[in-house]
Amino acid sequence: MSVPAEAVGQPKKAATAAWIGSALEYYDFFIYGSAAALIFPKVFFDESDPATATLLSLATFGVAYAARPVGALFLGHFGDRVGRKKIMVFTLILMGLSTFLIGCLPSRDQVGTLAPVLLVACRVLQGISAAGEQASANSMTLEHAPPHRRGFFTSFTLGGTQGGQLLATLVFIPIASLPEDQLLSWGWRVPFWLSIAVAVVGYVIRRRLEETPAFARQAATEGVVKLPLVVLMREHWADVLRVIGGALIASVSTIFTVWALAYATSDAVGMSRTSMLWVGALANLVALAAIPLWATLSDRIGRRPVFLIGAVGSAITMFLYLWAISTGSYPLIMLLGIVTFGVVYSAANGVWPSFYGEMFSTRVRLSGMAIGTQIGFAVAGFAVTFAAQIAGPDGTDWSSVALFTAALCVPPVIAAFSARETCKVPTELLGEKTPVQASRTERVTA
Question: Where would you find the membrane-spanning parts of this chain (predicted)?
Answer without folding.
Answer: 26-45, 51-75, 87-108, 152-176, 188-205, 243-264, 276-294, 306-324, 330-348, 369-392, 398-419
